[in-house]
């Protein structure tokens, strides 16, 4: 079938809106008419080759829409179901078998290779292969093929065009707090970076009962929103000594820190802000080869921990419905971060994300009557 899609053809270049051919779903694939897709920092990083994904490629990995066709082997969803598409995984490696699919042994192959596992792409333009299957979906398009492993059926009365960001950025921030770090009642946390991931973490920290929630950023407007969404303290990173201020606020440091910026200097600040036996989680996507310098004695002698977190350690078909219910109850107002754009405005959406004008851009797709 023919679809409209935004194609990445070169690093740091604008997306090109093109008509492509999308293959029919195979027996284990699901065809989704995309309603809207969130723009994530990972899309921008992959455009710019922070990790060398093949090009030309259709990016997009926070898609929400309606199932329009399923392969013969699919039992999880049916035609007409509203769904969100999240990250993909193999289902058979030790991590997947142990219900830790965010650490799938083939995570990069299933999400960044731009191809199906058999080396084919579902997308083409005439005789030109366009790489697809990005995060098992490539949802910067009117239609996308996904898989049972990365599709989540959602309630029919949920606001579908607002649900896509739950698939990656929002579940990463909220899941880091709830699932990975397991922040509890009365604990303290500093969140470095108050973009969509960091603000999601702040909202989640409030949900679980953290009593000291510190937001750190350079952007005063984002810090103001952080305060409205649950931060008890905000620090403008270029106006204060962040580590000293966190130690002043808490007495000995925070129980938890979450670093979302992937900046080595900020990573060190996050670790240095920990109290004894504190834990720092890293969720920011660094360029390949990025290194960070730490004081080993500071880390070791006080039992401090530093760990990476992928997709918030989330099981999407469990966690996304939980976030939807928290939103329904008014306890997780993630939609306050959203700004909508149409597909032909996708380059503006990306620019606004990079500049900080938009915290979480969501691109709406044109809907055909079929």
Describe the structure.
The protein starts with a strand and ends in a 6-residue tail after the last strand. The longest helix has 13 residues, at 196-208. It is built from 11 helices and 17 strands. Helices cover 26% and strands 25% of the residues. By secondary structure, it is an alpha/beta fold. Helix 4 packs parallel to helix 5 (196-208). The strands form 3 sheets. Strands 3, 4, 5, 8, 9, 16 and 17 form a 7-stranded mixed β-sheet that branches. A 6-stranded parallel β-sheet has the order 12-11-10-13-14-15, with helices on both faces. The chain folds into 2 domains: 2-167 and 333-364, Quinone Oxidoreductase, Chain A, domain 1, CATH 3.90.180; 170-311, 3-Layer(aba) Sandwich (Rossmann fold), CATH 3.40.50. Helix 9 links the parallel strand 14 (274-282) and strand 15 (305-308).
Strand content: 25-35%
In total, the number of strands is 17
- Structure classification: alpha/beta
Which H/E pattern describes the elements?
Answer: EEEHEEHHEEEEHEHEHEHEHEHEHEHE
- The end-to-end span amounts to 12 Å
CATH topology of the largest domain: Quinone Oxidoreductase, Chain A, domain 1
Question: Any idea how many domains?
Answer: 2
| Second-tier CATH architecture of the largest domain | Alpha-Beta Complex
Principal-axes shape call: globular
Assign the CATH superfamily of the largest domain. Answer: Medium-chain alcohol dehydrogenases, catalytic domain
Rg, Cα atoms, Å: 20 Å
Quick one: biggest sheet? 7 strands, mixed
Tally of alpha and pi helices: 11
The CATH class of the largest domain = Alpha Beta
Question: Helix proportion of residues, in percent?
Answer: 25-40%
Q: Report the average pLDDT across residues.
A: 96
């Amino acid at each position: 079938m023919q679809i409209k899609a935004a194609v990445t053809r070169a690093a740091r270049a604008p997306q090109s809106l093109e008509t492509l051919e999308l293959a029919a779903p195979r027996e284990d694939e699901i065809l989704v008419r995309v309603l809207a897709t969130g723009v994530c920092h990972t899309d921008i990083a992959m455009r710019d080759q922070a990790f060398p994904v093949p090009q030309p490629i259709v990016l997009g990995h926070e898609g929400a829409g309606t199932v329009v066709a399923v392969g013969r082997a699919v039992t999880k969803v049916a035609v007409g179901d509203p769904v969100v598409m999240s990250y993909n995984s193999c289902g058979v490696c030790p991590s997947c078998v142990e219900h830790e699919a965010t650490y799938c042994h083939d995570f990069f192959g299933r999400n960044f290779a731009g191809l199906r596992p058999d080396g084919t792409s579902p997308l083409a333009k005439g005789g030109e292969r366009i790489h697809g299957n990005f995060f098992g979906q490539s949802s910067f398009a009117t239609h996308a093929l996904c898989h049972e492993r990365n599709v989540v059926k959602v309630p029919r009365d949920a606001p579908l065009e607002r649900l896509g960001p739950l698939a990656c950025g929002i579940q990463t921030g909220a899941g880091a707090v709830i699932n990975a770090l397991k922040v509890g009642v009365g604990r303290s946390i500093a969140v470095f970076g108050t973009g969509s991931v960091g603000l999601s973490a702040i909202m989640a920290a409030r949900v679980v009962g953290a009593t000291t929630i510190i937001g750190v950023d350079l952007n005063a407007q984002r810090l103001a929103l952080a305060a409205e969404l649950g931060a008890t303290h905000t620090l403008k990173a270029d106006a204060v000594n962040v580590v000293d201020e966190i130690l002043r606020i808490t007495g000995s440091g925070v129980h938890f820190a979450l670093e979302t910026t992937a900046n080595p200097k900020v990573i060190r600040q996050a670790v240095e802000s920990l109290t004894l036996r504190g834990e720092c989680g890293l969720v920011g996507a660094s360029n390949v080869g990025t290194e960070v310098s730490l004081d080993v004695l500071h880390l070791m002698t006080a039992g401090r921990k530093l760990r990476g977190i992928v997709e918030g350690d989330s099981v999407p078909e469990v966690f996304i419905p939980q976030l939807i219910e928290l939103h329904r109850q008014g306890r997780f107002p993630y939609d306050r971060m959203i700004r909508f754009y149409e597909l032909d405005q996708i380059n503006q959406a990306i620019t606004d994300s990079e500049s900080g004008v938009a915290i979480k851009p969501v691109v709406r797709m044109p809907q055909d009557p079929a």
